[in-house]
Design brief:
The chain contains ten helices and two strands, in the order E-H-H-E-H-H-H-H-H-H-H-H. With 220 residues, the chain is mainly α. The mean pLDDT is 87.
Length: 220
């Protein structure tokens, strides 16, 4: 069976996509869909950077900055978002696939395809959030789909507020979809597969919270 990589098919028709991928002897349109994801990621992150999304720490320091420092910080944020838009698919698709290849017995190419499907879902979330943040004039900590708002009532640590703002409805959906694919592909115990997935996302949320916690002004 030849599996034709389809990102929407992987999300909207998971049973069909999983069956075809599990029994695939060859894969087509992999490179084309990869280029599409990289291009889409670059555009979405650049637009987010243009509107200053993810720069809450910078906003707190605006009143203490000179005009030159302000322009340098804006340029730094936009550049950082563009670089992030290129690096994120590489990390999320290839490095994550490598991690799951090490802890499971699933062929690497199938893991790459699953990660591509999940990254498409990640981009859908970001595409929805960019206009929402801009129109409502809120930061990522006030993401209405996350635990960020609730955590602000109980926590004083900016780091942990950033951490809980990373835990969204979309992230639960992504974890569920990833478990749906991997548990069928792997002969390992299902609980072990689920544990590896949860640990992976906990690690990514901690890293993202740390990056959000870093004060932009330090680099200006």
């Amino acid at each position: 069976m030849v599996y034709q990589v389809g990102l929407l098919k992987g999300i909207l028709e998971p049973y069909r996509s999983r069956y075809q991928l599990q029994n695939a002897e060859a894969v087509t349109k992999l490179g084309l869909k990869l280029l599409f994801l990289y291009f889409l990621s670059l555009i979405i992150f650049a637009i987010g950077g243009y509107f200053g999304i993810g720069s809450e720490s910078f906003s707190k320091e605006v009143t203490t900055m000179s005009a030159n420092e302000f322009e340098a910080a804006k340029l730094l944020i936009l550049s950082g978002n563009i670089v992030t838009g290129i690096l994120t698919p590489s990390i999320y698709i290839f490095l994550a696939a490598l991690f799951f290849w090490i802890v499971t017995d699933i062929p690497y190419i199938k893991l790459v395809i699953v990660q591509m499907i999940l990254f498409g879902l990640q981009l859908m979330e970001k595409t929805l959030l960019v206009p929402l943040f801009v129109l409502m004039d809120i930061g990522s900590d006030a993401n209405p789909f996350s635990f960020g708002i609730i955590s602000q009532y109980f926590l004083r640590s900016d780091y942990f507020i950033h951490f809980f703002s990373e835990i969204t409805i979309f992230q639960f959906l992504i974890i569920a979809l990833q478990y749906f694919y991997l548990k069928e592909f792997s002969d390992r115990n299902n609980y072990l597969v689920l544990l590896m997935i949860v640990l992976f996302y906990l690690a990514t949320w901690f890293v993202k919270a740390f990056l959000a916690y870093i004060q932009v002004g330090v680099f200006v």
